[in-house]
Amino acid sequence: MQTDFDIVIIGGGMVGTCVAALLAQEPVLSDIRIALVEPHAPTMPPVNSDVDLRVSALSRASERILRRAQAWQHLPSPQRSAYEGMTVWDAAVQSNSRSALHFSAAETGEPNLGYILENRRVQWALIEAAPLRERVTLLGAQLQSLEFDDDCVRVGLSDGRAVRARLVIGADGAHSVSRELSGIATTGWSYRQSAVVTHVRTEKPHMRTAWQRFTAGGPVAFLPLPDGRSSIVWTNPTERAEQLAKLSPDEFARELEIAADHVLGAIEVTAPRAQFPLQLAHARDYTRQRFALVGDAAHAVHPLAGQGVNLGFMDCAALVETLAAARANGASLEELSEVRVLRRYERWRKSENALALGLIDGISKLFSNDSAVLGGIRRAGFAAVERTPLAKRFFILRALGLAGERPKMAAGL
């Protein structure tokens, strides 16, 4: 059957636009017809606007993937905040103690440990990427229905249009409509925690360092911004987070100073506050015939390690690599949507993501409590890692996305 598109991507956030741009730039897939379904047409962020509250810490692997997508060039250095160090410590000790973890780019041979970037600017850079602009059709509507037939998927849109596709990729976030319509269930739980986010100016400079202190209620993280401020992600039990969100800016700043153990001195809140609930969710399957999930639609993680969108970009690279390899080995356009091809991607990324989710969930449960026994274990563990170069290198390489079974483009190949 003649279809309208070979691949239809649901969701035009960072992950959806990334997989679209990567597909569009892949030479062996140059004959596929690609559409991106996104109801809210992306617009260029205002040049002189304040830093948006939604920021992400992008790893080295993500940087390489965005370079391959031809998006990195649209993220000039004034928009990027490179950080060269990271300090992580338990609330029972000082940030400069032997039981705190101190990571440095110098230990890896890398120029930095990553970049803090606004989500909206990353999304716009991907929209502006030449492959996407030249080869991807944007469909400005919401997904309404998916009907899986033997020879195509019928994609119903909110504006009344219906298009047919050989393969649909669900990239529509943690509350994925496409995942639900495809009949894929998830496992997971709520952490009964919420993260409060805002931007602050601190008395002491952040020194291009990310700071994270673990308290009984959850971690508080300071992410360095290019203008000298820090973006805050402060996790607390939901009721406590709601109370913090209602405080005056000065009252909130005083509470934040205490939570951070005054590591950066006095604090001034310089932006509105927002909060969002935290959960762990993992799709039971990443694929079915003519369908694949990427990003938060496949897995939602606690933000304490900053790995959410990085895992999503790795999904994108792995899926495109899987499809390109199958095509290079003689697979037809029709065969790319078959389970036998898509399951190669699922086996690859599901195991890697399960490892990451398990590690992050374990850290969250180990640290978000006031148990004296677990506190001793935490501090002993931190001290052991701090004294062991190989252990520190393992964690740094994981954070950079340079460990595990990586897609070639994430490895810089």
Task: Explain what the structure shows.
This protein is of the alpha+beta class and 413 residues long. It has a domain at 5-80 and 119-188 and 279-372: FAD/NAD(P)-binding domain, CATH 3.50.50. The chain is built from eleven helices and 20 strands. It has helices spanning 14-25, 60-68, 119-128, 130-135, 177-181, 238-246, 249-259, 308-328, 339-367, 372-387, 389-400; strands at 5-10, 34-37, 55-58, 81-83, 85-90, 101-104, 114-118, 136-139, 143-148, 153-157, 162-170, 186-202, 209-215, 218-224, 230-237, 267-269, 274-283, 287-288, 291-293, 299-300. The strands form three sheets. Strands 5, 6, 12, 13, 14, 15, 16, 17 and 20 form a nine-stranded mixed β-sheet that branches. The radius of gyration is 22 Å and the shape is globular. The two termini are 37 Å apart.
Could you tell me the mean pLDDT? 92
Q: Output the radius of gyration.
A: 22 Å
Biggest sheet features: 9 strands, mixed
Question: What general outline do the C-alpha atoms trace?
Answer: globular
Which secondary-structure class do the elements indicate? alpha+beta
Binned, the helix content reads 25-40%
Strand content: 25-35%
Task: Just give the CATH class of the domain at 5-80 and 119-188 and 279-372.
Answer: Alpha Beta
Number of alpha- plus pi-helical segments: 11
Distance linking N and C termini: 37 Å
Number of strands: 20
